[in-house]
Amino acid sequence: MALRTETLSPGRATVRAGSNIAFIKYWGVADAAINLPLNNSISMTLADAYTTTTVRWCERSALVEDACTIDGRPVSGDAAARTSRHLDRLRAVAGVDWRAEVTSANNFPMASGIASSASGFAALTAAGCAAMGLALSPTEQSALARRGSGSASRSLFGGYVEWEQGHDDASSVAHQLFPAGHWALRDIVVVVSGAAKTVSSEHGHTLAATSPLNAGRIAATTHALAEVRAAIVARDIERLGPVIEADALAMHAVMMTGNPSLLYWQPATLELIHAVRRWRSVDKIPVYFTIDAGPNVHLICEAPAAADLEDRLHDFACVQKIIVSRPGSGPVAVEEGG
Description:
- This protein is of the alpha+beta class.
- The chain folds into 2 domains: 12-179, Ribosomal Protein S5, domain 2 (2-Layer Sandwich), CATH 3.30.230.10; 185-325, 2-Layer Sandwich (Alpha-Beta Plaits).
- Helix content is 36%, strand content 24%.
- The chain is built from 8 helices and 14 strands.
- It has helices at 77-94, 116-132, 138-148, 201-207, 214-234, 237-256, 267-281, 303-313, and strands spanning 12-24, 29-31, 36-37, 41-58, 67-70, 73-74, 99-106, 160-163, 174-178, 185-191, 288-290, 297-302, 321-325, 332-333.
- The strands form 3 sheets. Strands 1, 4, 5, 6, 7, 8, 9 and 14 form an 8-stranded mixed β-sheet that branches. Strands 11-12-10-13 form a 4-stranded antiparallel β-sheet.
- β2 (29-31) and β3 (36-37) form a beta hairpin.
- α1 (77-94) packs parallel to α2 (116-132) and α2 crosses α3 (138-148).
- The longest helix has 21 residues, at 214-234.
- It is globular, with a radius of gyration of 19 Å.
């Protein structure tokens, strides 16, 4: 990885990075050590579901170990170790031994199937590089972010993004298909549970290969990816929708049939799936669902349908929160106090 910098120095930076919703999912790894996926994936970066992270680098004499706070709580154990491992990757590229103070905040429930690790590790990567004066391109940062969380590779870019499976650490990176303004889609994130998952996505990826359905899902992604690319080019929601629903269901079928079985859905998840199908067939509203590794449901529609759908969702007792998001940009620097 090329190092382009004027002067490395321990400084401070704050970056906001959007989560993303995958249209074709990443589930399962070909190489767990570097988060090399089993297939390409395509997503939309979100403007209105994001993580804001501040990194302050310090000389060892000032800070003997990394310190991390997320959503106002000090982080310890596995979560702290995962953060420090990622900071180690930045330290290795820069050739420094500084420690870091990390403060991070999400504007949506963490670890509940809204890709908080994607926005979190994208923001950590971008803020960490900026704070030390490490001038890496978005593609280089994408490769680094992937090591922390695979889907974070996609949040280094705005709009509609494809993460290439690649064959090694350098080639498994994301790139932008179209900027945010290409298509006025909306992701209506319907939160039915803000509780953290009992089995993390990081661990769940290692179980995909135990499912007898995994190979079939991976084989189907070649056609699905081509359909999603074409639908985005044409801005055709009725072409996009059936493909993203099928891939989400296939991914959860893999989860459910692995060993041990993962069942992230709750009764409310199924209630919303049936509602979406009813609105589409009876009321002729072009809306489709997708579900990441959690119980919460993402409704994908075009902008004109969003307000009506949001109103309908308020009638469901199971709905705890609704986040309506536009397509968003890649990571952006945030001024102190901003």
